């Protein structure tokens, strides 16, 4: 089976553009393909184009979500003849968004374009639910409206929930190599920080990385510290290896180091005081200049005279404009 990986932001890297996907599909030559997807989203235009190419591919297509399949990436997932997600992965749907700079007409065009994208995505999701016999009350229009509400709320689904609702056909077990994909995708979402309803499982994964970072930071400055659950509230318990010694919560700072640090603080205080005095002197100088200028009377502007003929001509010109 031919495999194609779509990992990362849609449209931003060589492996996530419509051109490279088209090239890969041509190389597959009609044989069965597996499209692995792990992405927090990206360009909806690129996502739609990639989805269309996969949907029109002559051979059997299986799309598989790994880790996180969000935003535009879900549209690509919907393109497969068979749709799968790994057991611990997430599916996220929301309204399209973007920015534009320009006048009111350009802004209105962008708003209308975003509405068109949202409508198209909602139709794609609804068509998938219809194909699985999962329409709400058997009503397509009602299902479409509910899907739009889910998009507006930025809805995250586990693989089990996505399967139950009808967005996918099956759940598969993760492979060992999938772990690195999870880590990379979580890191990307943390960096973007633009989603509002990120599940606790993902947040916990981020907190574990934060805990490790704090421990490394403490070691860098020569401190011995144990990062407790109170300091990283949502982090799960991390088991320490038996051979590693228990790290006690102490800060070892030698006397000479403390004295050196104190001296640096005193020097900074002195420099700050000098700058404060200079600032006060400058403010006094500016205030003196402002007071001086306020005492100087402005010269009377020169009077501009008009002849009687000029006034009559101006009056006729203004009357002609009013009549027209």
Task: Describe the secondary structure blueprint for this structure.
Blueprint: E1 2-7, H1 18-28, E2 33-39, H2 44-55, E3 61-70, H3 72-77, E4 82-86, E5 90-93, H4 104-131, H5 140-152, E6 155-158, H6 159-165, E7 170-172, H7 178-192, H8 200-220, H9 255-295, H10 308-323
Parallel strand pairs: 1-2, 2-3, 3-4, 3-5, 4-7
Antiparallel strand pairs: 5-6
Helix pairs in contact: 1-2, 4-5
Summarize the structure in words.
With 324 residues, the chain is an alpha/beta fold. The protein has two domains: 2-196, 2-enoyl-CoA Hydratase, Chain A, domain 1 (Alpha-Beta Complex), CATH 3.90.226; 199-266, no CATH class. Helices cover 52% and strands 12% of the residues. It has ten helices and seven strands. The chain has helices at 18-28, 44-55, 72-77, 104-131, 140-152, 159-165, 178-192, 200-220, 255-295, 308-323; strands at 2-7, 33-39, 61-70, 82-86, 90-93, 155-158, 170-172. Strands 1, 2, 3, 4, 5, 6 and 7 form a seven-stranded mixed beta sheet that branches. Helix 2 (44-55) links the parallel strand 2 (33-39) and strand 3. Helix 1 (18-28) runs parallel beside helix 2. The longest helix is centred in the C-terminal third of the chain and has 41 residues, at 255-295. The radius of gyration is 33 Å and the shape is extended. The model is unreliable at 208-253 and 296-304 (pLDDT under 50).
């Amino acid at each position: 089976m031919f495999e194609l990986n779509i990992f990362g932001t849609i449209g931003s890297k060589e492996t996530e553009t419509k051109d490279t996907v088209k090239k890969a599909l041509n190389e597959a030559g009609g044989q069965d393909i597996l499209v692995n997807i792990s992405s927090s989203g990206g360009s909806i235009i690129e996502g739609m184009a990639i989805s269309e190419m996969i949907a029109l591919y002559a051979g059997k297509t299986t799309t598989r979500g790994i880790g996180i399949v969000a935003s535009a990436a879900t549209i690509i997932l919907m393109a497969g003849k068979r749709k799968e997600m790994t057991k611990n992965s997430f599916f996220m749907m929301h309204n399209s968004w973007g920015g534009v700079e320009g006048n009111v007409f350009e802004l209105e065009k962008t708003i209308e374009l975003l509405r068109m994208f949202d409508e198209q995505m909602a139709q794609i999701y609804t068509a998938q639910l219809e194909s699985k016999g999962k329409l709400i009350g058997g009503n397509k229009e009602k299902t479409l409206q509910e899907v739009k509400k889910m998009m507006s709320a930025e809805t995250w689904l586990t693989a089990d929930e996505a399967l139950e609702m009808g967005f996918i056909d099956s759940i598969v077990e993760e492979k060992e190599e999938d772990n690195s994909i999870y880590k990379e995708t979580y890191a990307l979402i943390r960096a973007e920080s633009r989603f509002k309803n990120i599940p606790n499982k993902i947040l916990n994964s981020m907190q574990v990385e934060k805990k490790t970072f704090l421990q490394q930071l403490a070691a860098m400055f020569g401190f011995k510290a144990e990062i407790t659950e109170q300091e990283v509230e949502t982090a799960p318990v991390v088991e320490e290896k038996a051979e590693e010694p228990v790290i006690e919560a102490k800060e070892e700072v030698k006397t000479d180091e403390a004295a050196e640090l104190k001296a640096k603080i005193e020097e900074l205080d002195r420099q700050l005081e000098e700058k404060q005095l200079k600032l006060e002197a400058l403010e006094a100088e500016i205030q003196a200049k402002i007071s001086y200028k306020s005492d100087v009377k402005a010269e009377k502007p020169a009077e501009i005279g008009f002849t009687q003929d000029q006034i009559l001509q101006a009056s006729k010109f203004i009357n002609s404009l009013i009549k027209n």
